[in-house]
Amino acid sequence: MSGWSHRHVIDLAAFSLADYATVLELAQRFRALPLSGARRLPALQGRLMTSLFIEPSTRTRSSFELAARRLSADVQSFSPAASSLSKGESLLDTARTYVAMGANVLVVRHRCAGVPHTLARDLDRCGERVAVLNAGDGLHSHPSQGLLDLFTLARQFSPAAPTPEALRGKRIVIVGDVLHSRVARSNLWALTACGASVVLCGPPTLLPQQFAAFVAAPPPGQRQDPVAERGSIEISRSLEQALPGADAVMTLRLQKERMHQQLLTSLDRYHRQFGLSHRRLELCGRAVPVLHPGPVNRGVELAGELLDDPKHSLVEEQVRNGIPIRMALLYLLAAAEGPPPAATPAGDGLKAV
Ligand code: NCD
Fold it and tell me: Which of 145, 258, 296, 317 to mutate for ligand 1's pocket (most ligand atoms within 8 Å of CB)?
């Protein structure tokens, strides 16, 4: 794909506007194809995707595996409890074992931030030709979720042409546990790259003031920001102030598994202050879409009736859009690795069989 230069996808901080446009355009093409059951694209025939999930997952893992199958790739799945990791083997040695079996892409989820990055660097040093795709590392980054959220919003604002441009000038409110959320961090890189004005809303214990400067400097390891001009980030402590004029609201799960101290007095109180309901949403001044990456704590981040209301809730749409987004990422990474894809009349393996 012209202009695409990433060997691995670890963090959206490394994405240029052209990278976002490439992923969204491919995802839109994949989304338009009636792929199910035996109808697949031959694009990644002969390629192998291995999912190494060393942290629980429902959506992300199944979505990657389905995406790989729809591109005719082979899929191999690793379960940590039943593996040699539990006998003391290092993750690098485990990964190299799968590369020796022919893996072209390793989709990695780990509870510690930085593991996919270190793994990619070490595999490169060993001379292994394999791509690493981060499926969520600690509270650091979740690039495929950030991209599927971007795609979902772009399709909402501009159904005929869901490009990064569709986000320019939009006011997107992200509410909840920003501190522990890799989804929020990936969304901050993606949304500001596309020129959106992001309003982060939450209590100081879950949203430190420093997030206002999150994209102000290039992240560690990068000399400069690949995006010339970014949208803004504002911090708000009250939904009543954040919601008026919003174009979309993204809610985040309270990541209790990552809270090592008491950061909330009560869930009930949190819901009263920061939970989203139909009544609260009226503050936006018009009907706006609501997103949540899932899994949802019903009645905490989001009232159950709002989650189930198709007039507002894009939660199922996010899940649907995850598949074409992950197909796009796998295609961009795996098509560059290993033997060339099977020849088809379309030339690039993008015609359904
Ligand atoms: C998110 C994750 O794992 O970071 N879930 C997901 O991938 N859909 C968000 C969460 O766990 O709250």
Answer: 145
Tell whether 84 and 41 lie within a shared domain: yes
In a domain, residue 349? The reply is: no
Say yes or no: 81 and 49 in one domain.
Answer: yes
Domain assignment of residue 20, given as a range: 12-141+318-336
How many C-beta neighbours within 10 Å does residue 49 have?
A: 27
Q: Which residues line ligand 1 (CB under 6 A)?
A: 59-60, 136, 142, 145, 182-183, 253, 255, 293-294
Q: pLDDT (tens digit, 9 = 90+) per residue, 258-290?
A: 666 667 777 888 889 999 999 999 999 999 999
For the segment 184-201, what is each residue's pLDDT rounded down to a tens digit?
Answer: 999 999 999 999 999 999
**Bridge partners (DSSP) listed for residue 174:** 200, 250
**pLDDT over 90 for what percent of the chain?**
79
Centroid of ligand 1 to alpha carbon of 136 (angstroms): 8
Which residues fall within 8 angstroms of residue 192, CB to CB, at 6 or more apart?
A: 198, 215, 227, 230, 231, 232, 233
Average pLDDT over residues 133-154: 97
> CATH no. for residue 190?
3.40.50.1370
Q: Which residues pair with 137 in a beta bridge?
A: 110, 141
Q: What is the pLDDT of residue 231?
A: 97
Let me know whether 309 and 331 are in one domain: no
Ligand 1 nearest atom to the CA of residue 55, by list position: 3
